[in-house]
Amino acid sequence: MNELRTWILGRLDRGETVVLAAVTHTSGSTARGTDALLAMDSKGAMAGTVGGGFSEGQTIDAARQFFVPEGASSHTGQIARDLEFDLTPETNNTQMICGGRLSVHLEKIEPRGSAAQALRACFDHVENGAPCAFATMGTSRGRHYLTVGDEKRILFPQTPAQGEKKVLDALLATLEVARPGFGGAADFALEAGNDPELKAVRVFWLGMAPDPVVYIFGAGHVGVATCDVANLAGFKVVVTDDRPELLTGERFPRASLLRAIESFERPLTPYGKTPAIDIGPQDCALILTRQPDIDKEMLAQLLRTDAGYIGLIGSKTKRAGIYAALRNEGFTDADLSRVHSPIGLAIGARTPEEIAVSIVAEIIAVRAGVLPNSVIPDAETVPKKAAR
Questions:
Q1: How far is it, in rounded angstroms, from Cα 187 to Cα 193?
Q2: How many structural domains comprise the chain?
Q3: What is the pTM of this model?
Q4: Percent of the chain beyond pLDDT 90?
């Protein structure tokens, strides 16, 4: 999502109009869910996807109509549009056999309008580490653009225009009922009571959450490849090492942050201009360092965090030695069950690039619930914090 945000902001900064297309509802089998988002500029350049195939082709055609010169199309001047797709083979000639249904909402964002201001406010909030949503509503008074924070509070507009407070109050009341999340898009009716102006109003909700972070400890060849693959898969990447000569933008062009530390004795704390890091349940920590004693110390410190995924590179023999040492320090099998080692899926990877693919594939599988986040048989419940 970070690269898509950058793409959209780049166009808006240049004064270009952008059309967003988001999947708002799905049922049955579809290529993507409500986390899918596509953006198009006036030249037809695109970023993102709503899933490919027939529905994406039709969505792209619909997005182009927003830029057709005046008088050339019945859609000229449109600000928003909704598309419905039935992908069952019995009901259309799309040659699609997946059998699902989906809805797509398209929204035009003018670079100097309130839509762009609300979207920018949402992007800023997410960049600062908090979930947020960009929301739109059309009433008889015009189209309203809002930024909604993670505590269901209105961040934009900070000072409602005359006649807008009623709309915002209705939205806040609706959110208590609809409870849309920040993991994707949605479309729902506004709870308007008996107010005729608001009764038929629908809300487009584009929820956004900060990108999950992959923390790589070790700036060697596997770290370089894993940084690239993780970034392509949508993760923000932070690389830490005690060898500043390896932590360069040339080696890690896709890293969000390079952390040069004094040693791996205290890898999470600040050092000089290097900030501290706080690894949470949505984050992944990868131990790709260069020697077993560093690996053992790193693993002990990571087990004291809430990291959602912890991976340790190396052989089963190396793992056994490190685990034995940690057990002697008071760590339990339940603690060690949080660790994936040898790291990555067993796909026969040999090169740094192949190993990187196996690591990121395992992370995706664990986060999706396809693989359990436990690798020691008969381990009992994993405590939130390991022994200190």
A1: 18
A2: 3
A3: 0.82
A4: 70
